[in-house]
Protein backbone atom coordinates (compact mmCIF):
# COMPACT_ATOMS: atom_id res chain seq x y z
CA UNK A 1 0.00 0.00 0.00
CA UNK A 2 2.88 2.37 0.94
CA UNK A 3 4.59 1.53 -2.34
CA UNK A 4 1.45 2.33 -4.30
CA UNK A 5 1.08 5.65 -2.48
CA UNK A 6 4.70 6.60 -3.27
CA UNK A 7 4.13 5.73 -6.93
CA UNK A 8 1.08 7.95 -7.12
CA UNK A 9 2.90 10.83 -5.40
CA UNK A 10 5.84 10.47 -7.78
CA UNK A 11 3.46 10.60 -10.74
CA UNK A 12 1.84 13.77 -9.42
CA UNK A 13 5.22 15.43 -8.95
CA UNK A 14 6.22 14.45 -12.47
CA UNK A 15 3.13 16.21 -13.81
CA UNK A 16 4.04 19.51 -12.25
CA UNK A 17 5.04 22.08 -14.82
CA UNK A 18 7.53 24.80 -14.08
CA UNK A 19 6.44 28.15 -15.44
CA UNK A 20 8.89 30.99 -14.61
CA UNK A 21 9.46 30.75 -10.87
CA UNK A 22 6.11 29.11 -10.16
CA UNK A 23 5.15 25.45 -10.04
CA UNK A 24 1.75 24.65 -11.50
CA UNK A 25 0.11 21.36 -10.56
CA UNK A 26 -1.90 20.09 -13.55
CA UNK A 27 -3.76 17.60 -11.33
CA UNK A 28 -5.73 20.37 -9.63
CA UNK A 29 -9.42 20.03 -10.43
CA UNK A 30 -10.93 23.02 -12.20
CA UNK A 31 -14.69 23.41 -11.99
CA UNK A 32 -16.46 24.66 -15.11
CA UNK A 33 -18.69 27.65 -14.20
CA UNK A 34 -22.35 26.65 -14.25
CA UNK A 35 -23.34 29.38 -16.70
CA UNK A 36 -20.78 27.97 -19.16
CA UNK A 37 -22.55 24.60 -19.22
CA UNK A 38 -25.39 23.73 -21.57
CA UNK A 39 -28.60 23.01 -19.57
CA UNK A 40 -29.29 20.02 -21.87
CA UNK A 41 -25.92 18.25 -22.20
CA UNK A 42 -24.35 19.76 -19.01
CA UNK A 43 -21.12 20.08 -21.04
CA UNK A 44 -19.06 23.19 -21.74
CA UNK A 45 -20.81 25.11 -24.52
CA UNK A 46 -18.92 25.41 -27.81
CA UNK A 47 -21.44 27.53 -29.69
CA UNK A 48 -23.85 29.17 -27.20
CA UNK A 49 -27.17 30.35 -28.64
CA UNK A 50 -30.14 31.97 -26.95
CA UNK A 51 -33.78 31.02 -27.51
CA UNK A 52 -36.74 33.40 -27.52
CA UNK A 53 -37.26 32.61 -23.81
CA UNK A 54 -33.85 34.10 -22.96
CA UNK A 55 -32.23 30.79 -21.96
CA UNK A 56 -28.85 29.96 -23.52
CA UNK A 57 -27.92 26.47 -24.78
CA UNK A 58 -25.23 24.86 -26.89
CA UNK A 59 -26.35 25.01 -30.54
CA UNK A 60 -25.88 21.29 -31.25
CA UNK A 61 -27.97 20.21 -28.25
CA UNK A 62 -30.83 22.68 -28.66
CA UNK A 63 -31.14 22.18 -32.43
CA UNK A 64 -31.40 18.43 -31.86
CA UNK A 65 -34.14 19.18 -29.30
CA UNK A 66 -36.06 21.44 -31.70
CA UNK A 67 -35.57 19.88 -35.13
CA UNK A 68 -34.80 16.18 -34.57
CA UNK A 69 -36.98 15.60 -31.50
CA UNK A 70 -39.53 18.15 -32.83
CA UNK A 71 -40.07 19.82 -29.46
CA UNK A 72 -40.99 23.47 -29.87
CA UNK A 73 -40.76 24.46 -26.22
CA UNK A 74 -37.90 25.77 -24.10
CA UNK A 75 -36.21 22.76 -22.43
CA UNK A 76 -35.81 24.62 -19.11
CA UNK A 77 -38.97 26.72 -18.81
CA UNK A 78 -41.34 24.63 -20.96
CA UNK A 79 -42.64 27.83 -22.58
CA UNK A 80 -43.58 27.63 -26.28
CA UNK A 81 -40.98 29.22 -28.56
CA UNK A 82 -42.07 32.25 -30.60
CA UNK A 83 -39.30 31.48 -33.13
CA UNK A 84 -37.34 28.31 -33.82
CA UNK A 85 -34.17 30.15 -34.88
CA UNK A 86 -31.75 30.55 -31.93
CA UNK A 87 -29.65 33.71 -31.74
CA UNK A 88 -25.83 33.38 -31.30
CA UNK A 89 -24.64 34.59 -27.89
CA UNK A 90 -21.32 36.15 -28.91
CA UNK A 91 -20.64 37.69 -25.50
CA UNK A 92 -20.90 34.39 -23.66
CA UNK A 93 -18.88 32.60 -26.34
CA UNK A 94 -15.98 35.09 -25.91
CA UNK A 95 -16.17 34.66 -22.13
CA UNK A 96 -15.92 30.88 -22.52
CA UNK A 97 -13.00 31.23 -24.94
CA UNK A 98 -11.13 33.53 -22.54
CA UNK A 99 -11.78 31.15 -19.65
CA UNK A 100 -10.40 28.24 -21.70
CA UNK A 101 -7.24 30.23 -22.48
CA UNK A 102 -6.76 31.06 -18.79
CA UNK A 103 -7.12 27.38 -17.88
CA UNK A 104 -5.08 25.99 -20.74
CA UNK A 105 -2.62 24.33 -18.36
CA UNK A 106 -5.46 22.27 -16.92
CA UNK A 107 -6.37 20.70 -20.24
CA UNK A 108 -8.89 23.21 -21.62
CA UNK A 109 -8.21 24.10 -25.24
CA UNK A 110 -9.56 27.32 -26.68
CA UNK A 111 -12.83 26.64 -28.45
CA UNK A 112 -12.58 27.88 -32.05
CA UNK A 113 -15.04 30.45 -33.25
CA UNK A 114 -17.78 28.54 -35.11
CA UNK A 115 -18.18 29.12 -38.81
CA UNK A 116 -21.18 31.13 -39.89
CA UNK A 117 -24.00 28.78 -40.90
CA UNK A 118 -25.19 28.60 -44.49
CA UNK A 119 -27.91 31.05 -45.47
CA UNK A 120 -30.53 31.08 -48.21
CA UNK A 121 -28.58 33.59 -50.32
CA UNK A 122 -25.47 31.39 -50.30
CA UNK A 123 -27.41 28.22 -51.18
CA UNK A 124 -29.46 29.98 -53.89
CA UNK A 125 -26.24 31.28 -55.44
CA UNK A 126 -24.81 27.74 -55.66
CA UNK A 127 -28.05 26.39 -57.13
CA UNK A 128 -28.25 29.13 -59.78
CA UNK A 129 -24.67 28.37 -60.81
CA UNK A 130 -25.52 24.66 -61.09
CA UNK A 131 -28.42 25.52 -63.40
CA UNK A 132 -26.11 27.70 -65.54
CA UNK A 133 -23.41 25.00 -65.70
CA UNK A 134 -25.82 22.24 -66.69
CA UNK A 135 -27.29 24.47 -69.43
CA UNK A 136 -23.76 24.72 -70.86
CA UNK A 137 -23.19 20.99 -70.40
CA UNK A 138 -20.25 21.74 -68.10
CA UNK A 139 -19.98 18.50 -66.09
CA UNK A 140 -16.81 19.52 -64.23
CA UNK A 141 -18.37 22.80 -63.13
CA UNK A 142 -21.46 21.00 -61.84
CA UNK A 143 -19.29 18.51 -59.95
CA UNK A 144 -17.35 21.28 -58.18
CA UNK A 145 -20.57 22.99 -57.10
CA UNK A 146 -22.16 19.74 -55.88
CA UNK A 147 -19.04 19.00 -53.83
CA UNK A 148 -19.28 22.49 -52.33
CA UNK A 149 -22.91 21.89 -51.42
CA UNK A 150 -22.07 18.50 -49.89
CA UNK A 151 -19.38 20.09 -47.72
CA UNK A 152 -21.89 22.65 -46.46
CA UNK A 153 -24.48 19.94 -45.68
CA UNK A 154 -21.95 17.87 -43.74
CA UNK A 155 -20.94 20.82 -41.53
CA UNK A 156 -24.16 20.89 -39.53
CA UNK A 157 -27.80 19.89 -39.47
CA UNK A 158 -28.72 23.55 -39.70
CA UNK A 159 -26.88 23.86 -43.03
CA UNK A 160 -28.60 20.73 -44.28
CA UNK A 161 -32.04 22.11 -43.38
CA UNK A 162 -31.22 25.37 -45.17
CA UNK A 163 -30.08 23.48 -48.28
CA UNK A 164 -33.22 21.31 -48.30
CA UNK A 165 -35.53 24.30 -47.71
CA UNK A 166 -34.19 26.04 -50.83
CA UNK A 167 -35.23 23.20 -53.17
CA UNK A 168 -31.78 21.75 -53.71
CA UNK A 169 -33.03 18.18 -54.13
CA UNK A 170 -35.28 19.22 -57.02
CA UNK A 171 -32.46 21.11 -58.77
CA UNK A 172 -30.06 18.18 -58.37
CA UNK A 173 -32.65 15.67 -59.60
CA UNK A 174 -33.33 17.80 -62.71
CA UNK A 175 -29.58 18.08 -63.30
CA UNK A 176 -29.25 14.31 -62.95
CA UNK A 177 -32.04 13.83 -65.50
CA UNK A 178 -30.37 16.23 -67.94
CA UNK A 179 -26.99 14.48 -67.80
CA UNK A 180 -28.78 11.12 -68.01
CA UNK A 181 -29.65 12.00 -71.59
CA UNK A 182 -25.96 11.63 -72.43
CA UNK A 183 -24.99 8.85 -70.06
CA UNK A 184 -21.57 7.55 -70.95
CA UNK A 185 -18.29 6.91 -69.19
CA UNK A 186 -17.37 10.61 -69.42
CA UNK A 187 -20.52 11.68 -67.57
CA UNK A 188 -20.40 8.80 -65.07
CA UNK A 189 -18.46 10.90 -62.54
CA UNK A 190 -20.89 13.81 -62.51
CA UNK A 191 -23.89 11.47 -62.34
CA UNK A 192 -22.40 9.62 -59.36
CA UNK A 193 -21.51 12.92 -57.66
CA UNK A 194 -25.09 14.16 -58.01
CA UNK A 195 -26.41 10.92 -56.52
CA UNK A 196 -23.97 11.32 -53.65
CA UNK A 197 -25.31 14.81 -53.01
CA UNK A 198 -28.91 13.62 -53.19
CA UNK A 199 -28.34 10.95 -50.52
CA UNK A 200 -27.54 13.75 -48.04
CA UNK A 201 -30.94 15.36 -48.69
CA UNK A 202 -33.17 12.36 -47.96
CA UNK A 203 -36.15 12.10 -47.63
CA UNK A 204 -37.30 13.74 -50.88
CA UNK A 205 -40.32 15.87 -51.65
CA UNK A 206 -42.83 14.71 -54.26
CA UNK A 207 -41.34 16.79 -57.10
CA UNK A 208 -37.91 15.21 -56.59
CA UNK A 209 -39.37 11.70 -56.44
CA UNK A 210 -41.30 12.26 -59.66
CA UNK A 211 -38.20 13.51 -61.46
CA UNK A 212 -35.95 10.67 -60.27
CA UNK A 213 -38.73 8.18 -60.98
CA UNK A 214 -38.80 9.02 -64.69
CA UNK A 215 -37.85 6.20 -67.03
CA UNK A 216 -34.73 8.06 -68.10
CA UNK A 217 -33.47 8.51 -64.51
CA UNK A 218 -34.36 4.94 -63.53
CA UNK A 219 -32.43 3.62 -66.53
CA UNK A 220 -29.39 5.66 -65.49
CA UNK A 221 -29.64 4.45 -61.89
CA UNK A 222 -29.69 0.84 -63.12
CA UNK A 223 -26.71 1.60 -65.36
CA UNK A 224 -24.76 2.91 -62.36
CA UNK A 225 -25.80 -0.16 -60.35
CA UNK A 226 -24.23 -2.32 -63.05
CA UNK A 227 -21.06 -0.44 -64.03
CA UNK A 228 -20.56 2.26 -61.39
CA UNK A 229 -17.94 2.51 -58.67
CA UNK A 230 -18.60 0.97 -55.25
CA UNK A 231 -19.68 4.31 -53.78
CA UNK A 232 -21.75 5.04 -56.90
CA UNK A 233 -23.60 1.74 -56.62
CA UNK A 234 -24.17 2.38 -52.90
CA UNK A 235 -25.70 5.81 -53.55
CA UNK A 236 -27.73 4.51 -56.49
CA UNK A 237 -29.44 1.81 -54.40
CA UNK A 238 -30.16 4.30 -51.60
CA UNK A 239 -31.96 6.55 -54.09
CA UNK A 240 -33.70 3.57 -55.68
CA UNK A 241 -34.99 2.40 -52.30
CA UNK A 242 -36.51 5.84 -51.69
CA UNK A 243 -38.25 5.84 -55.09
CA UNK A 244 -39.66 2.30 -54.89
CA UNK A 245 -40.80 2.55 -51.28
CA UNK A 246 -42.73 5.77 -51.86
CA UNK A 247 -44.17 5.17 -55.33
CA UNK A 248 -45.61 1.73 -56.08
CA UNK A 249 -46.31 2.71 -59.70
CA UNK A 250 -42.55 2.79 -60.37
CA UNK A 251 -42.09 -0.90 -59.50
CA UNK A 252 -43.24 -2.18 -62.88
CA UNK A 253 -41.25 0.47 -64.77
CA UNK A 254 -38.09 -0.48 -62.89
CA UNK A 255 -38.45 -4.20 -63.57
CA UNK A 256 -38.90 -3.53 -67.29
CA UNK A 257 -35.39 -2.03 -67.50
CA UNK A 258 -32.88 -4.55 -68.80
CA UNK A 259 -30.56 -5.88 -66.10
CA UNK A 260 -32.38 -4.19 -63.19
CA UNK A 261 -33.15 -7.40 -61.27
CA UNK A 262 -29.68 -8.81 -61.84
CA UNK A 263 -28.07 -5.57 -60.60
CA UNK A 264 -30.05 -5.68 -57.35
CA UNK A 265 -29.36 -9.36 -56.81
CA UNK A 266 -25.64 -8.78 -57.30
CA UNK A 267 -25.61 -6.32 -54.39
CA UNK A 268 -26.93 -9.11 -52.16
CA UNK A 269 -24.63 -11.82 -53.48
CA UNK A 270 -21.58 -9.52 -53.48
CA UNK A 271 -22.24 -7.09 -50.61
CA UNK A 272 -20.48 -3.73 -50.45
CA UNK A 273 -21.38 -2.53 -46.95
CA UNK A 274 -24.22 -2.95 -44.41
CA UNK A 275 -25.94 0.24 -45.60
CA UNK A 276 -25.99 -1.01 -49.19
CA UNK A 277 -27.24 -4.45 -48.12
CA UNK A 278 -30.08 -2.94 -46.09
CA UNK A 279 -31.15 -0.68 -48.95
CA UNK A 280 -30.94 -3.52 -51.49
CA UNK A 281 -33.03 -5.84 -49.31
CA UNK A 282 -35.66 -3.16 -48.82
CA UNK A 283 -35.84 -2.50 -52.57
CA UNK A 284 -36.21 -6.23 -53.28
CA UNK A 285 -38.86 -6.50 -50.56
CA UNK A 286 -40.98 -3.88 -52.33
CA UNK A 287 -40.58 -5.82 -55.59
CA UNK A 288 -41.55 -9.27 -54.28
CA UNK A 289 -44.41 -8.13 -52.03
CA UNK A 290 -46.31 -5.53 -54.09
CA UNK A 291 -50.03 -5.12 -54.62
CA UNK A 292 -49.61 -5.74 -58.36
CA UNK A 293 -50.86 -8.64 -60.45
CA UNK A 294 -49.88 -12.09 -59.23
CA UNK A 295 -48.50 -13.12 -62.63
CA UNK A 296 -46.02 -10.26 -62.71
CA UNK A 297 -45.07 -10.89 -59.10
CA UNK A 298 -44.54 -14.60 -59.81
CA UNK A 299 -42.22 -13.78 -62.73
CA UNK A 300 -40.12 -11.50 -60.54
CA UNK A 301 -39.88 -13.99 -57.70
CA UNK A 302 -38.93 -16.79 -60.08
CA UNK A 303 -36.13 -14.62 -61.45
CA UNK A 304 -34.75 -13.94 -57.97
CA UNK A 305 -35.08 -17.62 -56.99
CA UNK A 306 -33.23 -18.79 -60.09
CA UNK A 307 -30.40 -16.40 -59.24
CA UNK A 308 -29.82 -18.19 -55.92
CA UNK A 309 -31.01 -15.37 -53.65
CA UNK A 310 -32.72 -17.75 -51.19
CA UNK A 311 -29.52 -19.64 -50.45
CA UNK A 312 -27.65 -16.34 -49.97
CA UNK A 313 -30.32 -14.98 -47.62
CA UNK A 314 -30.15 -18.09 -45.45
CA UNK A 315 -26.37 -17.79 -45.23
CA UNK A 316 -26.72 -14.14 -44.20
CA UNK A 317 -29.27 -15.01 -41.53
CA UNK A 318 -26.81 -17.25 -39.70
CA UNK A 319 -24.99 -14.17 -38.37
CA UNK A 320 -26.27 -10.69 -39.15
CA UNK A 321 -27.48 -7.48 -37.52
CA UNK A 322 -31.08 -6.93 -36.48
CA UNK A 323 -31.88 -4.68 -39.45
CA UNK A 324 -30.45 -7.10 -42.00
CA UNK A 325 -32.20 -10.01 -40.26
CA UNK A 326 -35.64 -8.41 -40.39
CA UNK A 327 -35.30 -7.38 -44.03
CA UNK A 328 -33.83 -10.75 -45.07
CA UNK A 329 -36.72 -12.60 -43.45
CA UNK A 330 -39.21 -10.23 -45.09
CA UNK A 331 -37.70 -10.89 -48.52
CA UNK A 332 -37.55 -14.63 -47.81
CA UNK A 333 -41.26 -14.65 -46.93
CA UNK A 334 -42.02 -12.87 -50.21
CA UNK A 335 -39.94 -15.36 -52.19
CA UNK A 336 -41.71 -18.27 -50.44
CA UNK A 337 -45.12 -17.04 -51.61
CA UNK A 338 -44.82 -19.27 -54.70
CA UNK A 339 -44.00 -22.99 -54.99
CA UNK A 340 -40.64 -22.39 -56.69
CA UNK A 341 -39.45 -20.36 -53.72
CA UNK A 342 -40.84 -22.83 -51.20
CA UNK A 343 -39.14 -25.72 -52.96
CA UNK A 344 -35.78 -23.94 -52.87
CA UNK A 345 -36.13 -23.11 -49.17
CA UNK A 346 -37.43 -26.61 -48.37
CA UNK A 347 -34.35 -28.24 -49.90
CA UNK A 348 -31.86 -26.02 -48.03
CA UNK A 349 -30.56 -27.61 -44.82
CA UNK A 350 -30.22 -24.20 -43.12
CA UNK A 351 -33.85 -23.15 -43.49
CA UNK A 352 -35.56 -24.71 -40.46
CA UNK A 353 -32.69 -24.33 -37.94
CA UNK A 354 -32.18 -20.66 -38.88
CA UNK A 355 -35.88 -19.82 -38.74
CA UNK A 356 -36.35 -21.48 -35.35
CA UNK A 357 -33.23 -19.75 -34.05
CA UNK A 358 -34.70 -16.33 -34.89
CA UNK A 359 -37.94 -16.96 -32.97
CA UNK A 360 -38.16 -14.67 -29.91
CA UNK A 361 -34.52 -13.62 -30.28
CA UNK A 362 -34.35 -10.70 -32.70
CA UNK A 363 -37.59 -8.71 -32.75
CA UNK A 364 -41.36 -9.14 -33.02
CA UNK A 365 -41.13 -8.52 -36.76
CA UNK A 366 -38.46 -11.18 -37.24
CA UNK A 367 -40.52 -13.64 -35.19
CA UNK A 368 -43.64 -13.03 -37.29
CA UNK A 369 -41.73 -13.53 -40.53
CA UNK A 370 -40.12 -16.73 -39.21
CA UNK A 371 -43.45 -18.20 -38.07
CA UNK A 372 -45.05 -17.33 -41.40
CA UNK A 373 -42.28 -19.04 -43.42
CA UNK A 374 -42.35 -22.17 -41.23
CA UNK A 375 -46.12 -22.33 -41.61
CA UNK A 376 -45.87 -22.03 -45.42
CA UNK A 377 -43.21 -24.77 -45.53
CA UNK A 378 -45.43 -27.14 -43.55
CA UNK A 379 -48.37 -26.47 -45.87
CA UNK A 380 -46.14 -26.97 -48.91
CA UNK A 381 -44.97 -30.29 -47.49
CA UNK A 382 -48.54 -31.49 -46.95
CA UNK A 383 -49.55 -30.46 -50.47
CA UNK A 384 -46.74 -32.64 -51.84
CA UNK A 385 -47.79 -35.59 -49.70
CA UNK A 386 -44.30 -36.19 -48.31
CA UNK A 387 -43.19 -37.04 -44.78
CA UNK A 388 -43.53 -34.14 -42.35
CA UNK A 389 -39.82 -33.55 -42.00
CA UNK A 390 -40.19 -29.79 -41.34
CA UNK A 391 -42.22 -30.42 -38.17
CA UNK A 392 -39.81 -33.08 -36.95
CA UNK A 393 -36.72 -30.99 -37.62
CA UNK A 394 -38.31 -27.94 -35.99
CA UNK A 395 -39.06 -30.03 -32.89
CA UNK A 396 -35.46 -31.17 -32.71
CA UNK A 397 -34.18 -27.59 -32.53
CA UNK A 398 -36.68 -26.42 -29.90
CA UNK A 399 -39.52 -24.92 -31.94
CA UNK A 400 -42.35 -26.45 -29.87
CA UNK A 401 -41.38 -24.66 -26.65
CA UNK A 402 -40.82 -21.37 -28.44
CA UNK A 403 -44.15 -21.49 -30.27
CA UNK A 404 -45.93 -22.41 -27.06
CA UNK A 405 -44.37 -19.42 -25.35
CA UNK A 406 -45.27 -17.24 -28.33
CA UNK A 407 -48.96 -17.97 -27.73
CA UNK A 408 -48.65 -16.51 -24.24
CA UNK A 409 -46.71 -13.33 -25.07
CA UNK A 410 -47.83 -10.43 -27.21
CA UNK A 411 -48.08 -11.13 -30.95
CA UNK A 412 -50.50 -10.52 -33.81
CA UNK A 413 -53.64 -12.60 -34.28
CA UNK A 414 -52.33 -14.10 -37.54
CA UNK A 415 -49.05 -15.09 -35.94
CA UNK A 416 -50.85 -16.78 -33.05
CA UNK A 417 -53.11 -18.66 -35.48
CA UNK A 418 -50.13 -19.88 -37.49
CA UNK A 419 -48.28 -20.81 -34.29
CA UNK A 420 -51.28 -22.85 -33.19
CA UNK A 421 -51.39 -24.70 -36.53
CA UNK A 422 -47.67 -25.46 -36.28
CA UNK A 423 -48.05 -26.75 -32.72
CA UNK A 424 -50.86 -29.09 -33.76
CA UNK A 425 -48.70 -30.52 -36.52
CA UNK A 426 -45.71 -30.98 -34.20
CA UNK A 427 -47.68 -32.44 -31.31
CA UNK A 428 -48.16 -35.81 -33.02
CA UNK A 429 -44.38 -36.27 -33.25
CA UNK A 430 -43.48 -35.26 -29.69
CA UNK A 431 -43.35 -38.85 -28.48
CA UNK A 432 -40.32 -39.65 -30.61
CA UNK A 433 -38.59 -36.29 -30.52
CA UNK A 434 -37.34 -34.62 -27.36
CA UNK A 435 -34.80 -31.90 -27.84
CA UNK A 436 -34.60 -28.28 -26.74
CA UNK A 437 -31.95 -25.59 -26.84
CA UNK A 438 -32.27 -24.21 -23.32
CA UNK A 439 -29.81 -21.41 -24.06
CA UNK A 440 -32.44 -19.80 -26.29
CA UNK A 441 -34.43 -18.93 -23.15
CA UNK A 442 -31.49 -17.70 -21.05
CA UNK A 443 -32.09 -13.97 -21.52
CA UNK A 444 -35.80 -14.07 -22.40
CA UNK A 445 -37.93 -11.66 -20.35
CA UNK A 446 -41.35 -13.16 -19.62
CA UNK A 447 -44.20 -10.69 -18.92
CA UNK A 448 -46.14 -13.28 -16.89
UniProtKB/TrEMBL annotation:
Residues 31-106 form the U-box domain. Keywords: Transferase, Ubl conjugation pathway. PANTHER family: U-BOX DOMAIN-CONTAINING PROTEIN, WDSAM1 PROTEIN. Functions as an E3 ubiquitin ligase. GO terms for biological process: protein ubiquitination. It is an enzyme of class 2 (transferase). Pathway: Protein modification; protein ubiquitination. It holds the Pfam family ARM_PUB. It comes from the Eukaryota. Its EC number is 2.3.2.27. It catalyses: S-ubiquitinyl-[E2 ubiquitin-conjugating enzyme]-L-cysteine + [acceptor protein]-L-lysine = [E2 ubiquitin-conjugating enzyme]-L-cysteine + N(6)-ubiquitinyl-[acceptor protein]-L-lysine. One of its GO terms (molecular function) is ubiquitin protein ligase activity. InterPro entries: ARM-like, ARM-type_fold, ARM_PUB, PUB22/23/24-like, RING-Ubox_PUB, Ubox_domain, Znf_RING/FYVE/PHD. This is U-box domain-containing protein.
Amino acid sequence: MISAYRSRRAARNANKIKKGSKLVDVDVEVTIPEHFRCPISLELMKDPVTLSTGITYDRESVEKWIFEDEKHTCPVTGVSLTTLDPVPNHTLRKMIQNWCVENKLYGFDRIPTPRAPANSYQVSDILSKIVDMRAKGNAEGVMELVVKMKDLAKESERNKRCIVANGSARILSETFEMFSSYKNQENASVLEEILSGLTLLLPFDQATKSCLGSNQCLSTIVWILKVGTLSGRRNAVLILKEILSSDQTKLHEFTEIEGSIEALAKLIKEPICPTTTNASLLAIYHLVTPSTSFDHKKTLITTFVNMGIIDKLLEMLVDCSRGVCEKSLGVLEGLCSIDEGLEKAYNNALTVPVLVKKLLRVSDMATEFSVSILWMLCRYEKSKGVEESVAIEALQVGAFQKLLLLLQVGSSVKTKEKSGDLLKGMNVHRGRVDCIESMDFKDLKRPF
